[in-house]
What does this fold into?
Amino acid sequence: MAHTCRNCKRTFATELELELHRDTCAEGQLFCDNCGERFEERTATTDGWHYRCPSENCDGEGIGEDIHQVESVRIAKQ
It folds into this structure.
């Protein structure tokens, strides 16, 4: 079974290879609801599973909680 990076669509033979790749993938862009910052995925995680906003004064954490993929965030029009 192939393991595919959700950001750059590269495939890997094992889940471990994919996890290691996620730490360095430059395609992943994240957005923090708490502080409004945008950053690369690799700056927000050390293990590929736990995410925390890299901004110094922000406590945002968790994919789907405070941190979201930029491509899935839509701007609301007023």
Q: What stands out?
A: The mean pLDDT is 84.
